[in-house]
Amino acid sequence: MSSQSEWKTSTGFILASAGSAIGLGAMWKFPYMAGIYGGGAFLLLFLLFTIFIGLPLLIMEFTVGKMGRTYTTKIYSKLTGKKWLNIIGWNGNLAVFILFGFYSVIGGWIIIYLGNVILQILSIEEASLTSINFEAIISNPWLTVLGQGIFIFLTMIIVMLGVEKGLEKASKVMMPLLFVFLIIVVIKSLSLDGALDGVRYILQPRLEDISMKGVLFALGQSFFTLSLGTTGMITYASYAPKEMTIKSSAISIVIMNILVSVLAGLAIFPALQSFGYEPQEGPGLLFKVLPLVFSQMGFGNVFYFIFLILFLFAALTSSISLLELNVSNFTKNDNTKRKPIALIASVLVFIISIPATLSFSSLSGITFGAGTIFDNMDFVVSNILMPLGALGTTLVVGQLLDKEALKESFGKDKFKLFAPWYFLIKFIMPAVIILVFVVQLF
Ligand code: TRP
């Protein structure tokens, strides 16, 4: 985005921030994490964390953005007068940089699948949706690096041209369409044999399935889907119109994120049981199961093609803001430097994304810490940098900012929510985040 106060209306702001927040997190990451960490138990934890921790933090980020109105590596010093606090902004910048590195791997898979389905529709390839072989695709280093390169390239071109506004407009159509498609897939999935087991798996919390790791990853997932701690949402709020309503915007984003996550779960798990996959498939889950669901529909490949386009769109509206964050922090909103900086950032992201992609092929043997290189990049972002960023911001908001100014930025307060929210941010959230860190260490 080129200048501050870009969004003329509250709706524009909600569309933009929802487009950024809703992406691979809800559709791709949620189901695969839920599959590994206990289905319904994971969903329950995710809901609790999203509502009781994620929502107040999202409101906090919007409040900070609305007060600060500048790019995020300056906003902390602008608000507090303390230059060193900009480190929180840089932490977010580092987070989105690494995040884009592994996000693009999945974006690349979408592109490869799209290519595959196009060849099928044009009958260039004598194949069907059931024959798309996920393992064969991701174990091909050249193909996956190419796919992810295309994804990064597309993101870069959009950011360079500064046409995000056009995408925002398009998202008015694309996002609801994606929703409709998800619902169609859910209906189809529910009609398959054995679907009920899958529904039970994802909706019924079995408390014995809750593990410490599951708790940590569910919290990480809440941070991830709401983009917390990366300062992404702060940036969006800094462009928002003065009259934007923080609470209702935050609530709508939280609800949309939960809805998409649950729908993705309901699209995948019933079908998964029916096709004989295990819930613990990992990152490939969505890519293995959905083609099979579409293969059961008339014109399945055409529908799957449309679905992939919508999915790609959702991923791009997020990756664009990932890149945009890096660009705006380095250009300091000076548009003449926009193109070269977008280019440099994209090339750097491409470089770090290569080991992430190869985690599924030639480098799959390298595992440490949280798993493969890919898993570790995700872990560092979702479980370390994002919570750290959120912790820093809660400390700034709770300890340094003026309560009255916060109250004003918080906006109209019909339900008297400011006091409990402020209490949460000042006392509870920092303690919770620190506690999680300490637990994580052991
Ligand atoms: N929330 C995004 C998703 O679910 C991922 C994300 C995290 C993000 N932090 C961000 C996107 C910052 C844009 C900017 O896909």
Quick overview of this protein structure:
The protein is an all-alpha fold. It has helices at 10-21, 24-36, 40-68, 75-80, 87-121, 134-138, 141-161, 164-190, 195-203, 212-225, 232-238, 246-275, 285-295, 300-331, 338-358, 373-400, 403-410, 418-441.
Estimate what percentage of residues fall within beta strands. under 5%
Low-confidence stretches: 1-5
Distance N terminus to C terminus? 42 Å
- Quaternary structure: single chain
Briefly note the structural class of the backbone.
mainly alpha
Whole-number count of domains: 1
Question: Can you give the mean pLDDT?
Answer: 92
Shape: globular
CATH architecture: Orthogonal Bundle
CATH topology: Hydantoin permease
CATH C-level category: Mainly Alpha
As a percent range, the share of helical residues equals over 70%
Rg (CA only): 21 Å
Q: At the fourth CATH level, what is the homologous superfamily?
A: Hydantoin permease
Organism: Staphylococcus devriesei
Keywords: Membrane, Symport, Transmembrane, Transmembrane helix, Transport
Subcellular location: Membrane
Main location: membrane
How does this structure look, described?
- The protein has helices spanning 10-21, 24-36, 40-68, 75-80, 87-121, 134-138, 141-161, 164-190, 195-203, 212-225, 232-238, 246-275, 285-295, 300-331, 338-358, 373-400, 403-410, 418-441.
- It has a single domain (10-441), classed as Hydantoin permease (Orthogonal Bundle), CATH 1.10.4160.10.
- The chain contains 18 helices and no strands.
- The two termini are 42 Å apart.
- The radius of gyration is 21 Å and the shape is globular.
- The model is unreliable at 1-5 (pLDDT under 50).
- The protein is mostly helical and 442 residues long.
- Tryptophan is lined by residues 20-21, 23-26, 96, 99, 224-225, 227, 230, 232, 318, 321-322.
